């Protein structure tokens, strides 16, 4: 006899699809307006959901913002792991990491605005996330291993802190892009022109190499 019981799988898939739509809409809204300015009803409209469903799945706007942050950091950390830097010599691997960071910031401007918003809230959402800590430790370990490999190859200076190096790589990319509008006025050049972006990337790579390399 044919089983006429309703399978739970379609319902599960529907729930997952709804949550993905909510997350995607929330990412855009938080990136555009920050946590304080973001509106749950806008997120619901863009996600083709309703506010009740958002609160059902995510409990609050604060929790939804934390989930969006976790996903944003997870995306960049996962992409970094896929670079397969351990298959390259240390100098080439470091250059690839610098290039990746620059391109990722250019291609994902919402990541920068989400980080800016969280800094306004003194990282109170990231503090609650064990996932962020786990991903960050893995990334620091990857950079640390890269530095150790460079020392063994005789190309990198010894004693460089992987956390400080990561902060510097992020900073020289991050500052340029977050200040592109004011910088273009102050320095009287279009900082986002293709030739300016290429010039900046070259400068960033040279800066990091001078910091890390022996010669």
Automatic annotation (TrEMBL):
GO terms for molecular function: DNA binding. Keywords: DNA-binding. Residues 39-58 bind DNA. Residues 16-76 form the HTH tetR-type domain. InterPro entries: Homeodomain-like_sf, HTH-type_TetR-like_transc_reg, HTH_TetR, NicS_C, Tet_transcr_reg_TetR-rel_C_sf. SUPFAM superfamilies: Homeodomain-like, Tetracyclin repressor-like, C-terminal domain. It comes from the Bacteria. It holds the Pfam family TetR_N. The keyword Ribosomal protein does not apply. This is TetR family transcriptional regulator. It comes from Rhizobium setariae.
């Amino acid at each position: 006899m044919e089983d006429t019981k309703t399978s739970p799988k379609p319902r599960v898939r529907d729930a997952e699809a709804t949550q993905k739509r909510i997350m995607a809409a929330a990412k855009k809204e938080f990136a555009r307006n920050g946590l304080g300015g973001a509106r749950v009803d806008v997120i619901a409209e863009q996600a083709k959901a309703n506010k009740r469903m958002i609160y059902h799945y995510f409990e609050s706007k604060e929790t939804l913002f934390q989930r969006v942050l976790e996903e944003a950091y997870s995306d960049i950390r996962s992409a970094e792991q896929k670079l397969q830097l351990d298959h390259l010599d240390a100098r080439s691997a470091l250059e690839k990491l610098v290039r990746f960071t620059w391109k990722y910031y250019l291609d994902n401007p919402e990541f920068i605005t989400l980080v800016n918003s969280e800094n306004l809230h003194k990282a109170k959402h990231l503090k609650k996330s064990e996932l962020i800590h786990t991903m960050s430790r893995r990334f620091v370990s990857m950079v640390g291993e890269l530095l150790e490999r460079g020392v063994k190859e005789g190309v990198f200076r010894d004693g460089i802190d992987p956390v400080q190096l990561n902060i510097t790589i992020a900073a020289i990319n991050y500052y340029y892009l977050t200040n592109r509008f004011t910088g273009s006025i102050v320095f009287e050049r279009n900082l986002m022109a293709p030739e300016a972006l290429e010039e900046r990337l070259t400068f960033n790579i040279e800066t990091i190499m001078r910091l890390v390399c022996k010669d």
